Amino acid sequence: MKTVRSVKKKGTRTAAAVSIGSKLLRMRIAQLRKGEVSELESLQYPISIGHEVFSNTKISFESIRSISSALRGFSALMQEYGVDSCRVVATTALREAVNRAFVVDQLKIQNGVQVEILEDNQEKAFVYGEILKQLPERLKDGNTLIAYIGTGSIGVAVIRDETAVFSKNIPVGALKLHDMLGSLQASSIHFHEVLEEYIHVAVGRFLSVYPGGFPSISQLVLADNGSALIASLCKAEKKGGVYTIQADSVRELYSTIRNMTPEKISFSYQISESDAELLYTTLSIYLYLINLTGVKSIYAPQVDLLRPILQEILLPKTRELAFDRVRRSTLACVRELGKSFQCNMEHAERIAELSGLLFDRMKEIHGLDSRNRLLLEVASLLHECGYYTHPRQYSNSTFHLIRSMDIYGITENELYLVASTFLPADSLEAADSLSVRQQLIVSKLAAIFRLADSLDQSQKQKLKNLKARLDKNRLLITAESTESASLEEWAFSQAVPFFEDVFGVHPELTVRDAPVKTAKQRKV
Length: 524
What we know:
Layout: E1 2-5, E2 14-20, E3 24-33, E4 36-46, H1 49-56, H2 61-81, E5 85-90, H3 92-96, H4 100-111, E6 115-117, H5 120-134, E7 143-149, E8 154-160, E9 163-170, H6 174-181, H7 191-207, E10 219-224, H8 227-233, E11 237-239, E12 242-246, H9 247-257, H10 262-269, H11 273-293, E13 297-301, H12 306-314, H13 316-340, H14 345-361, H15 363-366, H16 370-382, H17 394-403, H18 412-420, H19 428-431, H20 436-454, E14 464-471, E15 474-481, H21 486-503, E16 506-513, H22 519-523
Helix pairs in contact: 1-6, 2-4, 6-11, 7-11, 9-11, 10-11, 12-13, 13-16, 14-16, 14-20, 16-18, 16-20, 17-18, 20-21
Pfam family, one: Ppx-GppA
Family: Belongs to the GppA/Ppx family.
Domain Ppx/GppA phosphatase N-terminal: 29-188
């Protein structure tokens, strides 16, 4: 067990964050000092659940006992530091284990901890946020490709103007690659070719779905647990916690080791055999991304999942800032997806605007939060995507398309909520998979969306200066128009009954003739 210890200062709030990874159980303890998060302790304990899950799909009893024992040691240290709050998260290995529910239950019984299994998009949002904070000046020109190479998956995002416009989670990581193909290494002198071909197909398949074709990339940012080792072997420069690794140095290093066994790599570079295994596969991924983008150098920041988690615990306001950043990227990705499905984006943007307006005016009766508002915006922007594949049954088509999407910062469960807003309220397909609370959220989002959608039924944005307010049991909506709004008024009347069933409030729409401006007024 490795540990790095600092000095504790009394009288301030202390928090701990623990991650259950594929190879390591890690903990950081930090304290809030003068508005800054100051780290007190860093601990890590080796585990091997990644090998177990990627090879046999489940975590063994021995590993559960080992994790439980280590967590007891972590808990003792937390008590010593007087930790006020603790968050325990798990990533790919536990997420993909078929017996994950049993493991989580046992750790709760044996250790009294509630393990939160992060979805891929949650984990990557934390990591991308850390990268964006470290590299703001370097990400302003052109498109930047960020790749977070985990043990079990690769997260990729295209960043433009410091905002993600595309993201994808690829279920192939450095350790998983080794466990899948490692048996070939001893029997094939062309193992590196097998590995390179597999990466080309596995990663390329996911990147090929980029709307309009994969863009030209100006900068490549790679983050992984082995980047410091690769940077050291490539003699990379380090500035401000970020390595700059030359692409040719990566090619040279890979060329040197590609015909070596892990044992020989371990001996040659004085590293553990497990690190040697990951070095081989990680370098293969590096090389693929270098060749894909054509960059001359790579930025490799040192990122840690636990640091932003500690920030959220000790500085709750940073959660709001992080959410604002994620929201911008989420909506940017959604707009790109909408364009790729040939949605009428002018209409979609109007519905998103109107949905947001109604949501804000109804706060006292809907009981939803800012996260739900974001889901409503996503639904509004994507509500026509089903027409692209099945115009006659576009609602069902929209449901299935959205469920299959990767959207930056949105979890699979949240995507299901968004998709379900397009199904009939009594749909068995949705109801069977949603809790009662989730069904309530979906019904509320659907009722607001349908009312907003009716207000631009002609898709001509006829209604201007639209306002809404609650008046006891009525939602009063007023608007102005220089054209006939008969279609909107009819569609509105069709959306009213469901809205009333959900909220017990009667919506009323009043459309007035917009004042006609004189020539003199128009000049002013």
